[in-house]
Amino acid sequence: MYNPFSLCGKTILVTGASSGIGQSTAIECSKMGASVIITGRNEQRLKETFLQLEEGSHQMIAADISKFEEIKKLSDECPPLDGISHNAGIGKVLPVKFIKPSDLDDILTTNTEAPILLTQTLLKKKKIKKDASIVFTSSLCGVYCVHYGESVYAASKGALSGFAKGAALELAAQGIRVNCINPSIIQTPLFNTISVLDEEERETKLKNYPIKRLGLPTDTAWAIIYFLSEASAWVTGNNLKIDGGYTLI
Ligand SMILES: NC(=O)c1ccc[n+]([C@@H]2O[C@H](COP(=O)([O-])OP(=O)(O)OC[C@H]3O[C@@H](n4cnc5c(N)ncnc54)[C@H](OP(=O)(O)O)[C@@H]3O)[C@@H](O)[C@H]2O)c1
C-alpha cells in the first residue's frame, strides 16, 4: 500500500524509550515497520517497552547518556542507523534565585550535552547513514515561550534547538536531515511529576488550549514519524510546535 510515512526497512534509535514520549515513539515506529533500538537507564521499564513493540528485529541497550563512557558504549553497540529520535530528558521547576550549580549541571548535561554528544559520537563512528533523519525532542518552552520557574529547562531546550539548526546546515551535504519537535504539555510521567493538577487547575489550564485537551504521547510520536519518514524528505532545520494551538492566544 502507498504510504510515504512508512518506516519499513529503516533502523531507528529511540532514546528515553523507557517512558512517555520515547516509549510511545518506539512503539509507533515499530508499528510503521521500523527496526527499533530502544535505550534508557531503567532496564525493567525498557523491557516493558520492548514487549509492546510490534514483532520485528528490535534491540534493547540500557545506558545512562549523562555519562560520556556510556554514550561511547551505546554508539559501539548500535547498528548503522536510518534515524534517531532523541527523547531522554529531565525537568525541574527552579525559580532563578534557587538555581544551584548542581541543578544546572544535571539539566544541561542530560537535556543538551547528552543528545549533542550522542549524535557526534554516532557520526564519528559512521553509524548514521547517508540520508538519515535526526529528530530532537526539544520543547515549546525555551523556543516559543517560557513559564515561571522554567528558565534552566528553557535554556537547555533553546540550546538544543540552536544546535539542531547548526547540525542541519552542516549535515545537509550528506543528505542527513535534522529537525526538532516542540511540544507543550504532553501527559507523561515527566509532566505528572512536575505538575500535579486538581480538576479545577486542569480546567483552567485547558482554557489556554484552543484544541480542548492536553497532549498525548502519540501526538508527539506521530510528528516524529513524519520527520523520520520520506514524507519530510525536503524538510530540515525545523522546530515544529505541537501545542493544541496554545501559542495562538
Ligand atoms: N511531557 C511534556 O509535557 C514535555 C513537553 C515538552 C518536551 N518534553 C521533552 O520530551 C522528552 C521526553 O519527556 P517525557 O515527558 O516522555 O518524560 P519521561 O516520561 O520522564 O521520560 C523521560 C525519559 O528520559 C530518560 N532519561 C532521563 N535521563 C536519562 C539519562 N541520563 N540517560 C538515559 N535516559 C535518560 C528516562 O529513562 P530512564 O529513567 O530509564 O533513564 C525516560 O525514558 C524530554 O526531553 C522532555 O524534556 C516533554
Explain this structure:
The chain has helices at 20-31, 43-52, 68-77, 101-124, 151-171, 189-194, 199-206, 217-228; strands spanning 11-14, 35-40, 59-62, 81-86, 128-137, 177-183, 239-242. It is α/β, with parallel strands linked by helices. The protein has one domain (11-241): Rossmann fold (3-Layer(aba) Sandwich), CATH 3.40.50.720. Strands 3-2-1-4-5-6-7 form a 7-stranded parallel sheet, sandwiched between helices. Strand 4, helix 4 (101-124) and strand 5 (128-137) form a beta-alpha-beta unit. Helix 1 crosses helix 8 and helix 3 (68-77) packs parallel to helix 4. The longest helix has 24 residues, at 101-124.
* Total of helices: 8
CATH architecture: 3-Layer(aba) Sandwich
Report the portion of residues in β strands. 15-25%
Roughly what percent helix? 40-55%
Q: What series of H and E elements makes up the topology?
A: EHEHEHEHEHEHHHE
Question: What gross morphology would you assign?
Answer: globular
Instruction: Say which CATH homologous superfamily is assigned.
Output: NAD(P)-binding Rossmann-like Domain
Distance separating the two termini: 40 Å
Largest sheet descriptor: 7 strands, parallel
Mean pLDDT: 96
Question: How many structural domains?
Answer: 1
CATH class: Alpha Beta
Q: What's the gyration radius in Å?
A: 17 Å
Strands ordered across the widest β-sheet: 3-2-1-4-5-6-7
What bound compounds does this protein have? Answer: NADP nicotinamide-adenine-dinucleotide phosphate
Structural class: alpha/beta
Number of strands: 7
Q: Flag low-confidence runs.
A: none
Q: What quaternary form is this?
A: single chain
